[in-house]
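Lecture notes, structural biology module. Today: joint structure prediction for complexes of two components.
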Amino acid sequence: MISDATPLSAPTLEGTDDDQLLRVSLGPQHPSTHGVFRMNVVLDGETVVRLKPVFGYLHRNHEKIAEGGPYLHAMPYTDRLDYICPLTNNWAYALSVEKLAGIEVPERAEYMRVILAELTRLINHTAFMGFILGDMGAWGSALMYAFREREKILDLFEDLTGARMMANFMRFGGCRYDLPEGWIGQVSRIIDDYGPFLDEMEQLLIGNEILLARAQDVGQLPPEQLVNGGVTGPMLRAAGISYDLRKVEPYGIYDRFDFRIPLGEKGDCYDRIMIRFLEMRESLKILRQAIDALPEGDFINPKAKLRNFKPPVGDAYGRIEGPKGELGFHLISDGTTDPYRFRVRAPSFVNLTLLEDMCLGLDLADVVIILGSIDIVLGEVDR
Amino acid sequence: MAIDPKLAGELKPAGIHVTSFESLINWGRSSSLWPMQFGLACCAIEMIAATMAKYDMARFGAEVFRPSPRQADLMLVAGTVTKKMAPLVVRLYNQMAEPKYVIAMGACAISGGPFKQGYNVLKGIDRYIPVDIVIPGCPPRPEALLDGLLALRKKIAGEKLIGDHRVRHADPKGTAEFPVPEYGAHDLQPAANREIWNPDPVVHEEAAD
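The predicted structure, tokenised, for the full assembly:
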């Protein structure tokens, strides 16, 4: 179908008499690929014997564009990396530049960042529930519930940043604006309402026979392989490995909050779904503590320079625990106003690398669930 | 070809609605647009949001998203079209059955948007397929998408199906297929379909001495 398609050769299959192999190209326009992702799948009957991902249908030159302008110029582009959760991307980039230039962040700004990041995590995981249920055939209903809650949080973001999705809110050394009046009260209301919503969603999902049948014992990998593959985030924690940057390497002020890291047991798709429920509950805990302890003060470091900002020569790697995993920015400065090198460590891209290992030997229908459970966003995968 | 308002008024109490075939067909077409379920980038999330409970695109008869181009009437180009993706977008458009409409949603689909300077981004999908409605924004709000949809409905309601100025899909000489560009070594080949994309050249006026 596609002119640049490389012919699928399956060297491991040579020498068998089995000529019944069927090659299927899933995507880039496919309802289950979460964007423009393509998989060349070789099937033996219904069983996957080979899966080759094809990337690059959304390669938007993020890194090159960021290297062609001042440091602040890249901030709106980070919104568009993982476009479901722009504010965590903002934070990761701001954190890297702050590390590079040694900028202090005022207390109030740190709290604001935590609140925004955890709200973003809620959005991401809620939307994930809708999308993965859509992959299983419940197109619409679960997503309706998810987007109903998402809209409430987006309204808050709009009040604060002026945009629903593309916030462009964090600055080096703080945030762009202070919180508007009454905003914290609205967050508080959302936190109160979210628990019952999660209860409702869990009731709908946990015992659902279709979900159990399709997600349990699907897509497991040995934990060592996940670690070796660089997988991070809920994917890794679902396999029982306690690795969360908020605990391992507390950035910002995460060491002040009391929260736990939920862990899965088997690492199958069901665990990956459930771990996100538990993470949302922990996020609610963090949010409650953060809005209770929010101090007065500056929302941006008054000494931070926005114009003609020149960090010293050197490099820095800042990373945060994004909703999808470890999101990092590696910056190299040559002392000018523009970054010399701007590199994004995108969690969904790295998590996607083990896709074939997870899918081999399973049915084609399971591929869709496994891909959904990785929770990819193509803006970040292809950059 | 206007309908006699007097006659229409007389027949109305009897339950007879007088109209032209053209407006009846256009009314039917504009009231049940089936978009293709096809998201490219960030705008796709706002497109999904527009179909969800809060904005509820179903009110305008356009909630039946079809994953197959064969069953769709409306292509919402929602997001950045890269050079690798552009041939596929044109191919999908060609696979749609007439009458078909295109909404270019968001800055990227219109002109490349914030990524215009990138080496891999197509500077507007109107270089290859005819676009009916453009919705600016990055991304446009769901309300903007609904407004664009209403504008498209208005456009369809005013379509001429017979006569000299008939629309493309009612014209026997009109084409439903547009050439699919090749993903070449350096750029798409050709760089634009000149038959449908002929913008006025930008002329920098010399300062009069």
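Point to remember: The CA atoms of residues 8 and 14 of chain B lie 10 Å apart.
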